[in-house]
Write a structure and sequence with these properties.
About 20% of the residues lie in helices and about 30% in strands. The protein is α+β, with helices and mostly antiparallel strands. The protein has 2 domains: about 150 residues, no CATH class; about 140 residues, Substrate Binding Domain Of DNAk, Chain A, domain 1.
Length: about 350
């Protein structure tokens, strides 16, 4: 879940309560006393472009004040040229292990509300501040930051958190899960993120098409041309049975979910992954859908759009476990045309 309430320690709550307060507030005094206990003394004070920074590089801690109010508290979890590593990460979040992989940390803490620019964002229920974990591109957990966010941004994160909770409940109950994919090239896919081979150096459209055919034939993904090469929002509902809505066209494919999840992707995600030197797709929990592990039959249905649709172009993906049926994955890319 995107809320850290089950993992948040008393120390973390003390620190978060101090955000947006100033030196005269008891919450600020309690947080500073806690930090002083960790560092064994006072913090170094510096001025940084109008902000005040309170630092202890040898203990991996940095506080920032804007306009005399506490804006953020950062803990470096991996040593870098400017800071040593903070020695007590489990005193912030129970069970947090900075040496663990991203997937292991997410198993411990739950899926984040969103993951952007190598930062995983979380909330505490009822707390007007946010927590993010900053990752290096190499997959190393670099820092944990408590940060004061403005009202609009907190409201946006809370809406996303509610959606994550709703989708998790839907998946657990076997109800349809809806994901929106903004896409400007009209190409969509659903892949096994734990198996899809992402990197394709020096690609062009022809070589990427061949790559997608190869991945499709290996059962690592399904790809289709969903619309014209212009920006549109595709509303995709993943279901175990088809709805009674009429469809414009349908296509069936076989895919494997090696770890019980599939990921919806657009052409932009596929091309950025092709440019990457890493073999796997970057994590994107917002686009993941839980499915039965193993071989699956997917029926892609482009629905007849109505005025009630939130998205411009609606789709359904009907997921069924294949079991012992002999259907095989193929290189077919649905509704594909040359560009």
């Amino acid at each position: 879940m995107p809320f850290l309430d089950d993992r948040a320690t008393t120390e973390l709550r003390t620190l978060m309560a101090a955000l947006s307060t100033g030196p005269d507030a008891p919450e600020y005094a309690a947080a500073l006393a806690l930090v002083h206990a960790w560092v064994g003394g006072e913090l170094d004070e510096t001025d940084d472009a109008g902000s005040t920074r309170l630092l202890s590089p040898s203990h991996g801690i940095g506080l920032r004040l804007n306009g005399g109010r506490l804006a953020s508290i950062a803990f470096e979890l991996t040593a870098n040229p400017e800071f040593e590593a903070f020695a007590h990460p489990a005193q912030l979040l129970s069970g947090l292990d900075p040496s663990a992989s991203k997937s292991e940390v997410r198993t411990t803490l739950g899926q984040p509300i969103e993951s952007a620019y190598d930062n995983d964002w979380y909330l505490l229920d009822g707390v007007d501040a946010a927590v993010y974990l900053g990752w290096r591109s190499t997959g190393v957990l670099q820092r944990l930051v408590l940060v004061n966010r403005d009202g609009k941004e907190l409201a946006r994160l809370r809406r996303k958190a509610a959606k994550v909770v709703e989708q998790a409940a839907a998946q657990a109950a076997g109800r349809p899960v809806r994901v929106e994919v903004p896409e400007e090239d009209g190409i969509l896919g659903i892949v096994d993120p734990d198996a899809y081979r992402a990197s394709l150096p020096d690609w062009d459209f022809a070589s990427l098409t061949r790559h997608l055919e190869s991945e499709s034939a290996a059962g690592r993904g399904v790809f289709w041309m969903a619309g014209p090469p212009e920006f549109a929002t595709y509303g995709i509902e993943v279901r175990t049975t088809a709805s009674d809505r009429p469809s414009e066209r349908e296509s069936e494919h076989v895919v494997r979910a090696s770890k019980g999840r599939l990921r919806l992707v657009g052409y932009g995600t596929l091309t950025m992954a092709a440019d990457s030197a890493t073999e796997r797709l970057d994590d994107d929990p917002d686009a993941d859908v839980a499915v039965p592990a193993g071989r699956l039959l997917l029926r892609i249905r482009q629905l007849t759009a109505t005025a009630d649709d939130d998205a411009e172009i609606p789709f359904e993906i009907v997921v069924q476990k294949l079991g012992k049926r002999r259907a095989k994955a193929t290189a077919q890319l649905a509704w594909w045309t040359k560009r």
